[in-house]
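Dear colleague,

Thank you for sharing your sequence with our group. We've completed the structure prediction you requested, and as agreed, I am returning the results in plain text so they can be pasted directly into your records. Please verify that the sequence below matches your submission; if there's any discrepancy, let me know and we will rerun it promptly.
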Amino acid sequence: MATVQITDDIERIQERFDATRAEVGKVLVGQDELLQRLLLAMLADGHILLEGVPGLAKTLAVSTLADCIECSFSRIQFTPDMLPGDVTGTQIFNPKDGTYSVKKGPVFGNILLADEINRAPAKVQAALLEAMQERQVTLGEHTFQLEAPFLVMATQNPIEQEGTYPLPEAQLDRFMMKLRVGYPSKDDEVRIIDRMAGPGREPSASRVMEAREILEAREVVRQVFVDEKVKRYAVELVTATRDPAGAGLPDLVNLIEWGASVRASLNLIKLAKAHALMGGRSYVSPHDVKSIGHDVLRHRIIVTYEAEAEGKDADDVIDSILANVEVP
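Please find the predicted structure tokens below.
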């Protein structure tokens, strides 16, 4: 009976998310993988960091997805002169009665677009850290719980270095995935021109999903079955980043400075469950883990100067690990 119930739930969730994907597709062109990852993060209750040069529809993708969901949406354009209160809010003194009142900041929303987050100084990034990890904000003596769902989708430009503050490893680790957004194909670029520069109004998306449905879908994701061998496989992938020699990958020893944290193993399984559900299955396969391996690990592996000298980055290291760690 339980199997029949979860199968029905998965079919229902697939229909709702397919409708959302179709609605976003009215605006967004050629970013199917990006959209799928955004929906996976929503199902797995994790934050996303989007990296790419300007003009690749990173902000458009997030804002359009927010338009499709009946929940609150906030956007913060990060700049070097920002203060923590610009994100979390602040206390305002009332001289009449000598009391303080709380003015909540833009972080108090269901979906938060943190645009160009690497332009914010460390103290502003730290203010966002509590909200991302603890799902709460402390203002003075008061602590406020953030309303679920709460999802941070941050963008950063990898080219400009002047006036930027690279995210520290501790904050990078709070992001469930780091996605690299590339250029569209020639055909997609022509479609973008036709859609955005053609006759008539620019397309827009309508609301097709409620926040309640996301929370219900997350409960179904938790019920997706993960075999012990698949759990072990995820852990083997992560530990290979810390001890490549022990994993039979001695060529990677001089390429990895620091490996991935325990959060990597947790997020691999959480996202694999969501990936399985999106595929219509109530169980996780090793393929689900491999499919999201790069997105979960690339920002958690710090490569050495030797690797950089050889023109290799974290994705090259992950390629070797996925190719050589035995699949159950």
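Summary note from our side: The chain has two domains: 2-217, 224-324.

Kind regards,
the structure core
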